[in-house]
């Protein structure tokens, strides 16, 4: 695997681990203020899919032998754009950003930043990432499979999130 792929993979793993630390801190903060978790039964599916995403890339890279694959600057540009949007999502939600559904009647849904323009931007960003990142590695099967799995999970996640938000903050 070319060095740029290793660097990108290491960056992504550390980024995701750092995000889990932030999410845990935010979860504890929300729960200390009366926040309740909703949709816990499907959360494990997200963990499995996102862990398998990295495994799938590695397996596909090994099977396909991408040692001569050159960096696609177009794909890398789209990757950088998704990272900017990802940061904007996290920054917009602040302490409310989480990988779980945590709601509290003490707080209203965030409608600032990117959330002023789109209701679930992080899910859009993740969907794009699940397509672009594998293509950077030459992992075409992964680039097809995981966005589909993401969409399927969102058919469960978004309704659960909307229901939780509506129950905690009825209008």
Automatic annotation (TrEMBL):
InterPro entries: ICMT_MeTrfase (IPR007269), Metal_cation-efflux_comp (IPR052527). Its main location: membrane. One of its GO terms (biological process) is methylation. Gene3D superfamilies: 1.20.120.1630. This is Isoprenylcysteine carboxyl methyltransferase family protein. Keywords: Membrane, Methyltransferase, Transferase, Transmembrane, Transmembrane helix. It is found in: Membrane. The chain crosses the membrane at residues 42-63, 75-97, 131-156. It is a multi-pass membrane protein. Pfam families: ICMT.
């Amino acid at each position: 695997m070319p060095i740029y792929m290793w660097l990108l993979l290491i960056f992504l793993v550390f980024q995701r681990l750092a995000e889990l630390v932030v999410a845990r801190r935010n979860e504890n903060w929300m729960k200390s203020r009366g926040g309740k978790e909703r949709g816990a039964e499907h959360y494990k599916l997200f963990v499995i899919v996102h862990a398998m995403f990295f495994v799938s890339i590695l397996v596909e890279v090994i099977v396909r032998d991408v040692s001569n694959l050159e960096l696609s600057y177009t794909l890398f540009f789209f990757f950088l754009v998704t990272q900017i949007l990802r940061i904007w999502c996290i920054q917009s939600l602040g302490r409310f950003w989480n990988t779980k559904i945590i709601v509290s009647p003490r707080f209203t849904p965030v409608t600032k930043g990117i959330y002023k323009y789109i209701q679930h931007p992080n899910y859009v960003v993740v969907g794009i990432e699940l397509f672009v990142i594998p293509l950077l590695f030459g992992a075409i099967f992964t680039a097809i499979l995981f966005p589909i799995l993401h969409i399927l999970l969102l058919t469960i996640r978004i309704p659960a999130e909307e229901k939780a938000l509506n129950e905690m903050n009825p209008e």
